[in-house]
Structures
1.
Amino acid sequence: MKFFRKSAEYLFYLFVFLLPWQTKLILRPSVTNFNEISLYASHLILLLVLICFFVHKIKHRERAEKITYFWYFLIGLELFILFSFFFAADQILAFYRYILFLVGLGLFYLLQEGFRKNVYEDCCLNKINIVYSFLASVFLQALLGIYQFLTQSSFACKYLGLAAHYPDSLGASIIETVSGRWLRAYGGLDHPNIFGGVLAVSLVIVAYLLAKKKMLNSSQEVWSSIFLFIFYFFALFALFFTFSRAAWLALVVGLVILLIQLIVNKDRWMLGRYIALLFFSLVLISIVSFSYSDLITTRWHMDSRLEVKSLTERQAYLDQAKDLIKDNWLFGVGPGNYTVALMTQNKITSSIWDYQPVHNVFLLLWSESGIFALLFFVLFLIFLIKKDRREAFSWAIFGVLIILMLFDHWLWSLPFGFLFLFLFLGLI
């Protein structure tokens, strides 16, 4: 059985590394990613991990422990998502999203159980190895994002799940100024806002790890510190080049929460290192902001044509969500069926590209699976963050995720978002 435990462990590190890369086999194509049905390479690896992990658990049956409250809320959430399936117009898509949710639950369970030591062996997973596997992948994404912005182009590669983007292409995410059209950094993800959210979470974790390091007693610790420093500043620049306001806000909130936590803990060494890191971060961002001041002004003043269009669309998405909730507040329109319901009800009369989920995870969940699913999800989050065994950076990461869920939809509307969300909820 040691084979299954080791297989689950190393395959999981591989899964975490591959998660940000969108290599996939499209089973049912669609004009937008929201209605597409695809099989991702990372999903297949995760399924292998879950099989190996559960075989190991079955072999080594343990004494049953008290179930924490948040598991009851997760079960309730799952049941109401399943029930909303029967109200879906596109039931194939709804079934696909329900299966993705179950995979996310399996991932969360694996993270919760995999760190717990038992009477047979040491814990199955090493949390720091998971974090470094993810950071190694995001570092490559950060380099790619910086390259995309500086060259104002994004090449395509089907094996890595990369799509081509150019400033003059229709549908590309850009900033329009008097100096021209500027392509925002995508990394290897579907949108700069998603890339920015991933970088924001990663930067908060790395900031904590850098502040935590006190003594470098081995060459391995020296190299890990060097990697973290290089990662932090490259990721910071890549986040800047996404020009994602929600990701910027999420990072600031996460860093402030971490600062408050270090002050409360009264660890002067960590606090001093952390404040120094924040100071150098502010200096570097001020320098690069001066170089691209016209882009910053456009994003913050929000009075240009595209910025006004973006704000108008977000308000329209909120109005559409209110209409859907008003008509389907109890059980929703079915998992993954938000845009399908909009098209069915002809809430939009323009092009198919305007059929977008509401930019708020909580409203999106309410629209798709009803009020009870939303209630169970909120209670799950509350009891999860209140659990006794929390990581030191838990509140900061939780704050970042909440901001991203309040101002965007990708954590619930896209397959990557599901697994990313449950990965970090499991880690905290």
Note: The chain is about 65% helix and 5% strand.
2.
Amino acid sequence: MNQRKRIAVGMSGGVDSSLAAALLREEGHDVVGISMEIFDGSRSATPGQKHGCYGADEKEDIELAGAVCNRLGIPFHVIDLKEEYKEHVIDYFRREYLAGRTPNPCITCNREIKFGFLLEKARKAGIDFDLFATGHYARIVRAGARSFLARALDKSKDQSYFLYSLAREQLEETLFPLGGMTKPDVRKIAREKGLDTADRAESQDFMGGGDYEGLFEEGEIREGDIVDEAGQCLGQHNGIIRYTIGQRRGLGISAAKPLYVMDIDPEQNRLVVGEKISLLSAGLVASKVSLTGIKMYELPFRAKVKIRLNHEAAGSTLYPGGENRVKVMFDKLQNAVTPGQSAVFYLGDMVLGGGIIEKAIGSGDESGSR
């Protein structure tokens, strides 16, 4: 990118976005920093807790982002997105958990907030820019007039899983300056440039400390039965929002063999547990599918599919599932397919798209029994 551009950089107060802004500034671009204000002040910080994206330490993040922009000599703006974040991320997160699913709020935040309302409100506020850049570890491959999302060079930090639902129009106006770099190199270069955020710890959780129970109303977290696959009561759980598919620890029940959460039933407020073999699935059905590297009419199609961030992408065949759905059949049985999480489709390093896991297809049932 040789032509000078005006680029807005999403600043989080971390080393990645700080270096992204510094590199673009060095390239001669007209850079402006923008940060989101999303925390509504409803929770206080707990000493010693891990840093989170949503929490009382947001003020520190914004101050650091502003300090970096000041050091780089670029303008800095804070955009109030508290209402949008509550409606599109917090309320969605609550609904999904209460429905017995396990959502990924980062995917929703990227699509709706960072690459949506943030840019819309920044422009309405008179902040002019041609492109938007972030410190995400991902790449955008330009092929003629088309843009495709691809995995980062540093596979251990790759964040393409969180970005799969970005539309092609969004990708065309986006830059990921760190996509070809490793995390150690990012920190090294940031130190060399004297950035205050060079050695700052990364955010580990959606919420500070990983404790999101405060998002729920009194009475929404209720005790209920833990039953086996035959319906026999084995004990009590302390609220379905505290559990996810595949969970073994913290069930508070004893059995001759290890038992895992295999189903969450919100209507009866109960957990169904079984042996590990019951968690194996032949495939899944994904809904709300977003495809950028392939068209629905090109299915069936061979791809690798990730069913959670740290899952090793599994060889699969994608089939049309009707109503913006895709049926995924794995080459080998996969463990703990979890409704509410995202299934992301890859061809080599290129992201073909993905969708929200609606249900698992049991190892002996291609119709989708779980």
Note: The first helix runs from residue 15 to 26.
3.
Amino acid sequence: MATNAGGKSLRTSKRGSGLPPVVDRITVALVRRAAEDLQRLHNRTGLSKTDLVNRAISVYEFVQAEVDAGNEVHVRDPKTGKEQLVRFL
């Protein structure tokens, strides 16, 4: 079993599974809206809830880094050309 810098053991994925090792495990209490959104994403994409949460955190980190750098994040509809500013409050 692997250990982190503080000497604590880290659970890792099975050898040869093709999955990255688990380096942090947390328990999260989701509000109803987030739980429902997560379930809809799971149903729509077929991705595991773990994968969806990992992706959500990575997307949020990217958006926050861009905002911190003074940039704006926009979504553009390719059919109409209409743009919307994306903001996390």
Note: Residues 1-5 have pLDDT under 50 and may be disordered.
